[in-house]
Amino acid sequence: MMKSLYERLGGTKGITKIASDLTDIHMENPNISARYANSDPVAVKNSVATFFITGTGGPNNYVGQDMVAAHRGMNISNDEFVAVLDDALLALDKSGVQQREKEEVLAILYGMKSDIVYG
Ligand code: HEM
After folding, report:
1. For ligand 1, what atom is nearest to the CA of residue 116?
2. Listed residue (97, 107, 100, 118) closest to 21, CA to CA
3. CATH number of the domain at 10-116, please?
4. CB burial class (10 A; 0-12, 13-18, 19+) of residue 25?
5. Which 8-state DSSP code applies to residue 2?
6. Other C-beta atoms lying within 10 Å of the C-beta of residue 31
7. pLDDT tens track of the chain, all 119 residues?
8. Are 53 and 8 in contact, with CB atoms under 8 Å apart?
9. Is residue 11 lining ligand 1, measured as CB closer than 6 Å?
C-alpha cells in the first residue's frame, strides 16, 4: 500500500522543517507579510507544523482552531490565498519534495479556500 503523505513528506521531522521554512517565507513575502506583523513566529511554526502533520495522516496533535475560525474576520483576498500557495511550493521545493507530493499538498490546501478567503 502507498505510504501516507505524512510519511512521504518525511514524517514529523520533515514536516516541521517545511512548516518552519513556510512561515519564514510568508514573513518575507511582501504580499502577505503584514498579516503576520504581530505574530510570534515560533507559535505560528508550531501551529502550521501540527496542522500539516495531522492533515497528512500523522499523529493527531493539532490543538489550534479550525480554518474558518482561525481566519474569520481577516477578509483574506484571493491574491493572498494564491500567495500562500506560492510560498507552500517554495517551501516544498526547499526540502526537495517531489512533484506528486507537491500536487497532493496543493490539492489539500486548495480545498480549504472557501473556509479561508473572504471569511
Ligand atoms: C490553505 C491555506 C492556509 C492554511 C492551511 C492556513 C493555516 C493556518 C493555521 C493552521 C493557523 C493557526 C491557527 C491556530 O493556531 O489556531 C493559521 C493562522 C493564521 N493564518 Fe492561515 N492558513 C492558510 C491561509 C492563510 C492566508 C491566505 C492568510 C493571509 C495572508 C493567512 C493568515 C493567517 C494569520 C494572520 C494567522 C494568525 C497567525 C497568528 O496566530 O499569529 N492564512 N493559518
Report:
1. 24
2. 97
3. 1.10.490.10
4. buried
5. P
6. 15
7. 889 999 999 999 999 999 999 999 999 999 999 999 999 999 999 999 999 999 999 999 999 999 999 999 999 999 999 999 999 999 999 999 999 999 999 999 999 999 999 97
8. no
9. no
In this structure, what C-alpha cell is assigned to residue 57?
495522516
**Residue 49 CA to ligand 1 centre (angstroms):** 12
Task: Give me the residue label for grid cell 505574530.
Answer: 39
Residue type, 7: E
Counting ligand 1 atoms within 8 A of each CB, the residue from 42, 72, 84 with the most, and so the one to mutate, is: 84
Lookup result for grid cell 520533515 = 14
Does pTM surpass 0.85?
yes
